[in-house]
């Protein structure tokens, strides 16, 4: 037996290829959406993994430092580092901002890290070029996704930094590339008020009679000095000693320090279930809509093609073709359309993913699932056409 | 193989619908076509010609009567053979006013499709198709698509399709209507040749004055009743 569906497709290949390409672009968008979702999860995981931390100590009752703002007094780390099982406890700040390079602004996450060495929590775990920060001011290590080069002068708030090292896959949970700078600079930049605000603040403090007592001459100056520094960080990253579980170390910190502590797994669930949840729902909705649109297109095309063949179908039935054979012909055509579409979509997605303005992670497993879904949708979409074909009366071939 | 009766129709009636709107399309039809014989069936519009072909072609069921195709009773007063689809595939060849070829199959496969449907191998089916196409003088167009053929060539391909499973019966519904008289006569000549070569019983429904003189016997149908007439039976030369 010959393949009726195959012959029909070859005969009218123009129609099929055109429709298949259209469908394919839709499928490409669908695969990309799935890839964006995977990319977001991957970004979150990379963010957590590359932080090098086993525990995140944050302001009490916050989901910080990535999902909510959190503020801790900078000296707290001293009391954490002496807790049992703690190997390292280091301050870190995170804030998202525009980093200026020449005429260009790059949206980045500035990460303030304390002096130390590679492998310390908060530090970029590896560099692709240059070196780590060695000076306590005005040096930066940037993710290559920022587009910065070694030696570039970049501007964060009011200060200029020299890019001394480049790292990769260091991104915020939004996918913004990270720029690492010394903690002191970061604290200053994060809480930097504009000049006007500083002046206003000083004036207000000076006008407060409590600070300006005739009997205590240095008080006003001391108060003003303490106001202009910023003794806060967003989190303390903790690495634990071998032989301790994360929970063993976290428990006493929670109890004695009245701080909120997250383990690796908890942080992952915060990022994926809370931070990405809305985006994931949006993407899920898009996927459903795209699936429906694809199904509608396939159903419409196959239905139209089938209606155009009613006479031939009547003849096929009259000369003894089984209903099953005719149904298979239509379903195979729908699936054929799906296959063309999937191939086009997969190729398109692979080509445009690298230039997509968001990290797109195309997993083979998702492609496989997408493939199955396309085949199922096409098969379902052909039901309408098959019903129309099965209703055709072979007597129609004989006519009146 | 048992002896073929060709086509025998005895007292066939067909009523469409019920009650007030019922139409008695066939009131009493008696017909006999011997194996190897080609008979004409003529009658005014609405007289029941197509209805009769549909009953014989096993796509609608008569209301009463008896029909025999080849060596087989296919309908007897409410009883019908169970597998009508296989009956149509194996026992009946259809030729229509228009050729109704499958546009996406080439000429050979349009014909070979029938033996394939009957379970023969592709190679065997195509071999049979080619033989017939050559006999019908369209062998040189075997690889062409239907849309590339002239009307007469298409009609010959559709005749090849009707013949390829060697059915004992061929039903032709105005097969010459779109053809000029030369081509129309050629088609009838082919049908006659095939009838005698393969012992096929053939009914040709027609309005076509050009071909009427070729039939030896003609059935007239009027108001759903048949009358037999002796035709001129002139032949072709
Ligand atoms: N499906 C149907 N339902 C009801 N009545 C029908 C149906 N088909 C045909 N008829 C009626 O049966 C009668 C015979 O119709 P038929 O089609 O057999 O005529 P015909 O001889 O083929 O006519 P023509 O030469 O115009 O094709 C007509 O009165 C027609 O209206
Ligand atoms: Mg008719």
Describe the protein.
The complex is a heterodimer of chains A (400) and B (237). By secondary structure, chain A is an alpha+beta fold. Chain A has helices at residues 4-11, 13-50, 76-81, 183-190, 195-207, 219-228, 246-257, 264-275, 277-307, 310-318, 323-352, 364-381, 383-391, 395-398; strands at 55-58, 72-73, 86-101, 104-113, 129-130, 139-143, 153-156, 159-167, 178-182, 232-233, 235-240, 260-263. Helix content of chain A is 52%, strand content 17%. In chain A, strands 1, 3, 4, 5, 6, 7, 8, 9, 11 and 12 form a ten-stranded mixed beta sheet that branches. Chain A has a two-stranded antiparallel ribbon with strand order 2-10. In chain A, α2 (13-50) runs antiparallel to α12 (364-381) and α11 (323-352) runs antiparallel to α12. The radius of gyration of chain A is 31 Å and the shape is elongated. Chain B is of the alpha/beta class. A six-stranded mixed beta sheet of chain B has the order 7-8-9-3-10-11. In chain B, strands 2-1-4-5-6 form a five-stranded antiparallel beta sheet, covered by helices on one side. In chain B, β1 and β2 form a beta hairpin. Chain B is globular and about 50 Å long. Chain B starts with 6 loop residues before the first strand and ends in a 7-residue tail after the last strand. The relative contact order of chain B is 0.19. The chains are: A alpha+beta (400), B alpha/beta (237). At the A-B interface, α1, α10 and α14 of A face α1, α2 and α3 of B. Bound molecules: adenosine-5'-triphosphate and magnesium ion. Adenosine-5'-triphosphate (ATP) binds at residues 16-17, 23, 25, 43, 45-51 of chain B.
